[in-house]
Design goal:
The complex is a heterodimer of chains A (359) and B (567).
Chain A lengths: L3 E10 L2 E11 L4 E5 L6 H9 L6 E6 L2 E5 L11 E4 L11 H11 L4 H14 L15 H13 L5 E5 L7 H18 L2 E6 L2 H7 L2 E6 L2 E6 L1 H6 L4 H6 L4 E9 L4 E6 L2 E5 L9 E6 L5 E3 L8 E11 L4 E7 L2 E7 L10 E5 L6 E4 L5
Parallel strand pairs in A: 3-8, 3-9, 6-7, 7-8
Antiparallel strand pairs in A: 1-2, 1-4, 4-5, 9-10, 11-12, 11-14, 12-13, 14-20, 15-19, 16-17, 16-19, 17-18
Chain B lengths: L1 H32 L2 E4 L2 E6 L2 H8 L1 H34 L5 H9 L6 H12 L5 H13 L12 H25 L3 H9 L4 H30 L2 H7 L7 H10 L5 H32 L18 H27 L16 H6 L3 H34 L3 H11 L6 H12 L8 H25 L3 H9 L4 H12 L1 H17 L2 H6 L7 H10 L3 H26 L3 H6 L1
Antiparallel strand pairs in B: 1-2
Helix pairs in contact in B: 1-12, 1-16, 1-17, 2-3, 2-12, 3-7, 3-9, 5-7, 5-13, 5-24, 7-9, 7-10, 8-9, 9-12, 11-12, 12-17, 13-24, 15-16, 15-18, 15-21, 17-18, 18-21, 19-20, 21-24, 23-24
Classes of the chains: A alpha+beta (359), B mainly alpha (567).
């Protein structure tokens, strides 16, 4: 088992900085997810850990042994790392069992042991009967499992996943997330997992590293990263968010923000000075909608602009003057377009961020 | 790891030097040779502009150039029309037995154009050609006199033999481009209200234009630089093309080496311009090609009233380009001499007995065989090494090497022959078959580079990376993953280069000596000497060798060359 330490990692492709400056400690046995939009540098970090890319600056060590630095790179085959690729990268000229046994044969392990280990790896992923099949005879989900068996058969100290589920259909993807998570806990192998799918990240991760343009935006547990995003980017990327720009008009116990002529909002979060520009964030599921008048702070009257029925929830967009607030109602509630409604957002459900011109 | 790294650096350096020596030095030498004063056996030490000016400005040489371009234009026009028509019929219509005809129509690609000439001289000579003899015989039997109808010893004879061969090339390119076209484009034309014929004329055909133009240019260049067929026939009635003049200037006493060099440079310039244009068209063509993943084949078009014409075209081509030549060459090879009246007495097996007993014949057989194997193997290895490094670890040096190594595709074999001849004539290498090997490698390395590149590009890099993650080092990945996955492509290159080497004539003729003969040179030699029957026997031997190679590779490895070539 292993812990991974990344210090000041920089990866450039020509002039382009894919990874700007990333430092990260990954605990022994941890399931860490690198999450972010495409081009955020998550795959680059993964490939640097694997040794498939040389790093431009900084250091990566596994169990206190430096494996990558700007001068040195331990070749991937010597790192004891198993990896599952986005395309699965199974070799079509080999059978299922041959794909799995490849690494064992290279190690010169005797054939009876190889057979044992291959059997165990295949039974782990539920493909025992498929050992002699050709790769082209397998479905996408089965190929995925072979790739997984191949990655774990060498009993690596680290497992890497590069968007492993992105080629599967939605149902299977949901199922495999769960399976991957269970398997990792069973084997206890330190795992780094790359995805752009925040739901997937939520299901599998012990901790999520949210990346933005080659830098770490936030590192936290799935629950915390959803409830307490530290940036507007994080709030917007993970889950749904209403984000409105406003100006702080009163500070103290609570902070009041003027969003528009008709709309003032009171929050308990954050320390800001009067007059500062801020972004106010709320989650749609925190926005209560009522057809009868409500009382208290953060209550406004507005009109339903449009509404969608999504099965488990109703997605409702409400106009308050020129500001639109999105609400998700579960169980879904039927509202008519143009109908007059009252909305309420609890003060503790709001998050404030200093407004930057970027967002 | 350090050692491994250094070793690969050294190998890379050797590769660069080898490509420069093989592919570039002969060209520089040829161009340089144009700027010397000539003496009777070659070049003097004195620099001179006279030969250069003579070639580039004199009426005489410009007329040779014009002849070559004129011939090439006619051959190209015929090949494009015939080839495209055949491709359309065999790839898109409901003509019966399309699959079999498709195979037959590409056979000329695997034959030497020069053996095609041997065959057609046997078939189409005025007095003794089998066609005239047969027709006159039939006419006589029916009771009237007939003048000879066919005459291969004419300008139209040259055009005929060359067109038959190049039609096959056009057919191959056009049909593979037709087959790679996304059929949903045609289906959406139908959905927009077009009839099948309108779809064909307004969607399918216009989309083929870039790829047809690009292959037409290739045919144009190949036929403009060919000197063997136009030379052998044309010299009998005073028709001289630039390549033929280059051949004469460099071989017939007194030699005009600087003139030959200047004319070769002229040819080189034209070929280079043509190739640049061709690349431009190819890029245009790839923009048009949209391979559909679904693999639906649209319904073949109903030929209707065009059925008869299509049959005539397809059968006519296969008869003229495949069946008649092979039969004619075979028959001619079994005859003692050409005769206007054919009877049993003139049939003999002597020529074949001689091929397999005379020492210099056996040498030629042996040389042909080992040169083919070696040039094939070297082109595969060098081509793969260059393309692989360029695809996986691109740098300025890999770009440079991939470019330089592919350059010879634009260089006529004749020019390479001359360059290598003049570079090596003072070295011990001259007079050995090794010089031929250098010429073959230079000429065919581009196929090795380009074909292996398209093979490598189809291979997802993650296939190799996953092997690294399973504990394989670079060398093991190459040996256990990359090479096995590319097996079909590599074998296709190997055999393709072997085929090309077996039929290579234009450089070989300049470089051979008594000690380093090959089959193709023997055919040339005996044709030139007028011993057509013996040449035919050698041609049959050469053809059997090539067809065996194709059939065997197809059967054993299931390699389809037309696939590898068409891409």
């Amino acid at each position: 088992m292993a812990q991974i330490s990344i210090r000041g990692l920089v990866k450039k492709y020509g002039q382009h900085r894919a990874v700007a400056d990333v430092s990260l400690e990954i605990e022994d046995g941890e399931f860490l997810v690198l999450l972010g939009p495409s081009g955020c540098g998550k795959t680059s970090i993964l490939r640097c850990i694997a040794g498939l890319e040389n790093v431009t600056g900084g250091e990566i060590s596994i169990d206190d042994k430096v494996v990558s630095s700007s001068e040195f790179s331990l070749p991937p085959e010597k790192r004891s790392i198993g990896m599952v690729f986005q395309s699965y990268a199974l070799w079509p000229h080999k059978t299922v069992a041959e794909n799995v046994s490849f690494g064992l044969e290279l190690k010169g392990i005797e054939s009876s042991q190889i057979k044992q280990k291959v059997d165990r790896a295949l039974s782990l992923v539920g493909l025992t009967e498929y050992a002699t099949r050709a790769i082209s005879q397998l479905s996408g989900g089965q190929q995925q499992r072979v790739a997984l068996a191949r990655a774990v058969v060498l009993e690596p100290s680290v497992l890497l996943f590069d968007e492993p589920l992105s080629n599967l259909d939605a149902k299977l993807r949901e199922h495999m997330r769960f399976e991957l998570r269970q398997l990792q806990k069973l084997l206890g192998i330190t795992t780094v997992y790359v995805t752009h799918d925040q739901q997937e990240a939520m299901v599998v991760a012990d901790r999520i590293v949210l990346l933005c343009e080659g830098l770490i935006d936030q590192i936290s547990t799935p629950v915390d990263i959803y409830e307490n995003p530290t940036t507007v980017f994080g709030a917007d990327f993970i889950g749904l968010a209403n984000i409105h720009k406003g100006q702080v008009i009163q500070t103290g116990e609570t902070t009041s923000v003027q969003l528009s002529d008709h709309m003032q909002i009171v929050c308990t979060h954050g320390q800001f000075a009067t007059g500062q520009s801020v972004d106010v964030m709320s989650r749609p599921e925190q926005v209560r909608v009522s057809t009868s008048p409500l009382q208290g702070a953060n209550v406004w009257q507005g009109q339903v602009s449009h509404t969608f029925f999504l099965g488990n929830v109703a997605d409702v967009y409400i106009n308050i003057g020129n500001i639109q607030v999105r609400s998700q109602l579960s169980p879904p509630q039927h509202l008519d377009i143009g109908q007059s409604v009252w909305i309420h957002i609890p003060t503790q459900a709001l998050r404030l961020y200093a407004h930057s011109s970027k967002t | 790891m350090r050692v491994d790294f250094k070793l690969s650096r050294i190998l890379w350096f050797v590769l660069i030097v080898a490509v420069l020596i093989i592919a570039v030095v002969p060209l520089i030498y040829t161009i340089d040779a144009a700027f010397y004063k000539e003496n009777k056996t070659g070049l003097s030490q004195i620099r001179s502009l006279v030969p250069f000016l003579n070639v580039f400005t004199s009426q005489e040489y410009l007329e040779y150039l014009w002849n070559a371009l004129y011939l090439a234009s006619i051959v190209t026009a015929i090949s494009v029309t015939l080839g495209a028509a055949l491709a359309l019929i065999l790839a898109r219509t409901d003509l019966p037995f399309r699959g079999a005809f498709d195979l037959l129509a590409i056979i000329p690609m695997f034959l030497s154009p020069f053996t095609g000439l041997i065959a057609w001289i046997a078939l189409g000579s005025v007095k003794t050609g089998f066609i005239n003899v047969t027709l006159i015989g039939i006419a006589h039997w029916m009771g009237f006199d007939l003048e000879p109808i066919v005459n291969i010893w004419s300008f139209s004879g040259i055009v005929w033999v060359m067109s038959l061969f190049f039609t096959s090339l056009m057919y191959l390119f056009t049909s593979s481009s037709l087959r790679s076209m996304d059929t949903s484009l045609e289906e959406s034309a139908r959905a927009s209200g077009a009839t099948p014929m309108q779809t064909l004329l307004r969607i399918t055909l216009p989309m083929q234009i870039p790829s047809v133009l690009s292959s037409a240019l290739l045919v144009f260049i190949f036929s403009a630089e060919m000197y063997t067929i136009p030379g052998l026939i044309g010299s009998t009635f005073g028709f001289t093309t630039l390549p033929w003049r280059i051949y004469q200037d460099s071989t017939a006493f007194p030699v005009h080496q600087a003139h030959a060099a200047a004319a070769a440079s002229m040819l080189l310039i034209i070929a280079m311009i043509g190739m640049l244009l061709q690349r431009w068209f190819t890029r245009l063509a790839t923009r048009y090609i949209t391979v559909s993943g679904k693999g639906f084949r649209s319904n073949p078009m109903n030929l209707g009233r065009w059925t008869v014409l299509s049959w005539v075209l397809v059968i006519g081509y296969i008869l003229s380009a495949v069946v008649l030549p092979i039969a004619g060459m075979l028959m001619s090879s079994l005859m003692m001499y050409s005769a206007p009246v054919i009877n049993m007495q003139i049939f003999t097996l002597t020529h074949y007995v001689q091929i397999f007993t005379l020492q210099n014949m056996l040498n030629a057989l042996w040389n042909t065989a080992w040169l083919a194997v070696l040039s094939g193997a070297i082109c595969v290895m060098m081509g793969f090494a260059i393309s692989y490094t360029d695809a996986r670890k691109p740098s300025i040096s890999t770009r440079f090497l991939a470019f330089t190594g592919s350059l010879p595709v634009a260089v006529p074999g004749l020019v390479y022959g001359l360059g290598l001849l003049w570079v090596y004539i003072q070295t011990p290498l001259y007079g050995t078959a090794w010089v031929l090997l250098l010429a073959y490698i230079a000429k065919f390395l581009p196929y090795g580079i380009m074909t292996s590149r398209s093979g490598i590009l189809q291979l997802h890099p993650e296939m190799e990376e996953s092997a690294r993650m399973s504990g394989a080092n670079n060398a093991q990945v190459l040996r256990l993953i990359t090479m096995p996955l590319m097996k079909t492509t590599l074998i296709a290159i190997l055999v393709f280069v072997m085929l090309q080497s077996i039929k290579e004539l234009s450089a070989s003729v300049l470089l051979y000596t008594q000690k380093s003969q090959v089959l193709s040179v023997l055919t040339w030699h005996y044709m030139d000497a007028g011993n057509y029957q013996f040449a035919a026997a050698v041609g049959v031997t050469q053809t059997v060798m090539m067809l065996l190679l194709v059939v065997l590779t197809r059967a054993v490895f299931r390699v389809k060359f037309e696939k590898a070539l068409g891409s």
